[in-house]
Amino acid sequence: KVLGEGEGLLGKWVPVEGWGIPPADLLKVPGFRQPKDADIAQAKKLLAEAGYPNGFDLTILSRTNAITRNSSVFMSGQLNTIGIKAKVEVLEDAIFWDRGRKATFDSMVFTPTMVIPDVWAMGRYFVPGAAVNYTGNDDDKKLGDLWTQQVRATDPATRHALVLEAEKYLLEEALPAVPIAWPYLFLAAWPDVRGFSP
User: Fold this and answer.
1) How far apart are alpha carbons 34 and 197 in whole angstroms?
2) Quick one: how far is CA 72 from the chain centroid?
3) N or C: which end of the chain has fewer CB within 10 A?
């Protein structure tokens, strides 16, 4: 509602319609469920058990575009709720991506520039060794194997089941990053434009 200005999808790893965890089931997962009181209390408890009863400071890297800056500020506010004091550092793209590739950051927020309506393309953000995977999970053999199996599966039902298993694993166990939201992109075209498909 905030980041997509009312237009978009709840953040999950596989936002392609008909794939992954159904939205109604996603709202039962910790972090997504409402109200937030139980999740916030659990997060504070986990921080205290990890040796951070008063939270800690961190920097969130952001790109210069509005949606990434807004997402970074949004996440800063969310983290502050549990005692993590996050400041946002906005960087030009060349510096931002360089720091991402070199893993010289506390945390970063970036907004994908494309979504292809086939789930294989989404793997570029989280599969070990993928092009835009800055999550530091390159040793996650289970995730790599699941994704390779779904890419190679020829039976649609088998592939759906593997994608669902991979997304559940990403959200409930591995959590290499946190998908926030998938805003819609609106394109305008003259009525006489034919044969164009975004």
Assistant:
1) 37
2) 12
3) C
Query: Which among 182, 117, 127 has a CA at the least distance from the CA of 149?
Result: 127
CA–CA dist 14, 19 (Å, integer) = 7
* Torsion of Cα atoms, 47 then 68 then 180 then 38, to 10°: 40
Q: Provide the total of helices (H) and of strands (E) in the chain, helices listed first.
A: 6, 5
As given in the structure block, the two tokens for residue 63 are: 């790109």
- Which of 91-111 are b and which e, b meaning 16 or more Cβ less than 10 Å from the residue's Cβ? beeeebbebbeeeebebbbbb
| pLDDT score, position 113 | 60
Please list, in sequence order, all residues whose beta carbon lies within 8 angstroms of the beta carbon of residue 73, skipping any fewer than 6 positions away. 88
CA distances 21 to 18, 48, 162, Å, are 9, 31, 11
Backbone angles phi, psi at 97, to 5 degrees: -70, -35
φ and ψ at residue 150, rounded to 5 degrees: -70, -35
pLDDT per residue as tens digits for the range 132-151? 888 888 899 999 999 999 99
Q: Does residue 56 contact residue 98 with C-beta atoms inside 8 Å?
A: no
Joined tokens for residue 150: 């779904």
| Cα 109 from Cα 180, distance rounded (Å) | 9
CA torsion sign for 45, 50, 54, 56 is negative
Residue range 33-60, pLDDT digits in tens:
889 999 999 999 999 999 999 999 999 9
